[in-house]
């Protein structure tokens, strides 16, 4: 990436404090992998290439993404009135994506993104990770743990960013 893009990229700055806290007192090496706007074929290819590292129990993966960026300033105002208030519509949209991610089905996630256009920043790394899990030799289960919105949108003038956290564990 060029210097302008590199200076604007902030995912490592977001990740490192959390990783430092989680692994406090334990030596660790960080290998950052930046996934840009790659094609579905490349997501699958990178997933196949990286799958063998999932099989090594000494490796830990942290995938970062916000979820829905909603509001006119984000150029995304999907609203399903059947859900009630706007913030509930946003939650339903995000939960639909989270449910699909929990299935591990990269194609269903891609279809969801195509159908709803949800503004999930890390959609490409999430897809690569889903392909990694499909191609590794152990069974991994993803479970979402928490969901929040930066604000509860009530009018079309409001805006919000959604956040979700999940864990991927070896399925016993």
TrEMBL record:
Gene3D superfamilies linked to this entry: LigB-like
CDD domains: MEMO_like
Pfam families: Memo
Domain of life the protein comes from: Eukaryota
Family to which this protein belongs: Belongs to the MEMO1 family.
Name of the protein: Protein MEMO1
Source organism of this protein record: Salix brachista
């Amino acid at each position: 990436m060029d210097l302008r893009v590199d200076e604007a990229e902030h995912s490592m700055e977001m990740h490192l404090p959390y990783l430092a806290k989680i692994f406090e007192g334990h030596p660790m090496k960080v290998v950052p992998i930046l996934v840009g706007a790659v094609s579905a074929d490349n997501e699958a290819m990178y997933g196949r290439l990286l799958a063998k590292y999932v099989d090594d129990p000494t490796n830990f993966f942290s995938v970062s993404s916000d979820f829905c960026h909603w509001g006119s300033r984000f150029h995304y105002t999907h609203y399903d009135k059947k859900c009630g208030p706007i913030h509930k519509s946003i939650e339903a949209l995000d939960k639909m994506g989270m449910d699909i991610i929990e299935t591990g089905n990269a194609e269903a996630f891609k279809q969801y993104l195509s159908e709803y256009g949800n503004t999930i920043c890390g959609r490409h790394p999430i897809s690569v990770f889903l392909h990694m899990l499909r191609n590794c030799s152990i069974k991994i289960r993803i479970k979402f743990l928490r969901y929040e919105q930066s604000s509860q949108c009530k009018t079309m003038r409001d805006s919000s960013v959604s956040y979700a956290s999940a864990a991927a564990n070896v399925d016993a």
